[in-house]
Write a structure and sequence with these properties.
By secondary structure, the protein is mainly beta. It has one domain: Electron Transport, Fmn-binding Protein, Chain A (Pnp Oxidase, Chain A). The strands form four sheets. It has a seven-stranded antiparallel beta sheet, covered by helices on one side. It has a three-stranded antiparallel beta sheet with strand order 1-13-14, with no helix packed on it. Strands 7-8 form a two-stranded antiparallel sheet. β13 and β14 form a beta hairpin. The protein is globular and about 50 Å long. This is NADH-FMN oxidoreductase RutF, flavin reductase (DIM6/NTAB) family. InterPro entries: Flavin_Rdtase-like_dom, Split_barrel_FMN-bd. It comes from Pseudooceanicola nitratireducens. One of its GO terms (molecular function) is FMN binding.
Length: about 200
C-alpha cells in the first residue's frame, strides 16, 4: 500500500502514529503566570542533544479557552520553563487521566490524585514519585505547519532521578518499566533490555 497524506489513507484510522512507534511519553508539568499548575502527557517527545542536554515535545491540538495551543504551550510561552516527568507503567492510569481536555485552571495533579513537589531550579511543579524529572528552560517555540502545531525545545538544567531506579550507577529502566505510546489507543511497556556493541567500540 502507498498513500500520499494530502490525499488521505482510506483506512478506518490514521496509521501514522502506529508506524512511528514506540514513542516515549513526556509528561509535561507547568505553572501558569496566574499560579495555576498543569500536567499533560505528550507522545511527540524526545531528547535531541547531549551538550547541553536538550529535549523537545510537540503540541498538536488547541483548546477553545487558550489563545496559544494548549495549556502547556501557553504556560511555557509565558514563564519560559517546564518540567518533563518520565512515565512508568505503574502510573499509566493516572497519566491517562491527565490527558483529558480539562478547563483552564483545572489542576490535573489534584484531579488525578498525583503528589506534586516544587522543582529545585525553576518555578514549576513536578511529579513527586516519577522515576526521573527534567527541569527545563525553554529555548524555542517553533510554529509548525498546520493550524495548531507547536514544537517546544528546552535545555535541561536540572535532573531528578528516583534512588530505586539506579543500579550500580546506571539508570535502570527495568526497575520502573517506561510506558510508551503506539498508534490508535495503544500503549506498550519496556520490560526487556539488551545491548549491542558498535562496530568501532
Amino acid at each position: 500500500m502507498f498513500y500520499e497524506p494530502k490525499d488521505g489513507h482510506g483506512l478506518p484510522h490514521n496509521p501514522f502514529n502506529a508506524i512511528v512507534t514506540p514513542r516515549p511519553i513526556g509528561w509535561i508539568s507547568t505553572r501558569g503566570s496566574d499560579g495555576a499548575d498543569n500536567l499533560a502527557p505528550y507522545s511527540f517527545f524526545n531528547a535531541v542533544a547531549y551538550v547541553p542536554p536538550q529535549v523537545m515535545f510537540a503540541s498538536t491540538s488547541s483548546k477553545d479557552d487558550r489563545e496559544f495551543g494548549k495549556d502547556s504551550t501557553e504556560n511555557i510561552r509565558d514563564t519560559g520553563v517546564f518540567c518533563v516527568n518520565i512515565v512508568e507503567y505503574a502510573a499509566r492510569d493516572v497519566m491517562n487521566t491527565t490527558s483529558g481536555t480539562w478547563d483552564k485552571g483545572d489542576d490535573e495533579f489534584t484531579r488525578a490524585g498525583i503528589e506534586k513537589v516544587d522543582c529545585s531550579l525553576i518555578d514549576c511543579p513536578r511529579v513527586a514519585n516519577a522515576p526521573a524529572s527534567l527541569e527545563c528552560r525553554m529555548t524555542q517555540i517553533v510554529k509548525l505547519e498546520g493550524e495548531a502545531n507547536y514544537l517546544v525545545l528546552g535545555e535541561v538544567i536540572g535532573v531528578h532521578m528516583r534512588d530505586d531506579c539506579l543500579t550500580d550507577g546506571i539508570f535502570d529502566v527495568t526497575k520502573f518499566n517506561p510506558l510508551t505510546r503506539l498508534g490508535y489507543r495503544d500503549y506498550s511497556v519496556v520490560r526487556e533490555v539488551f545491548s549491542l556493541a558498535r562496530p568501532d567500540d
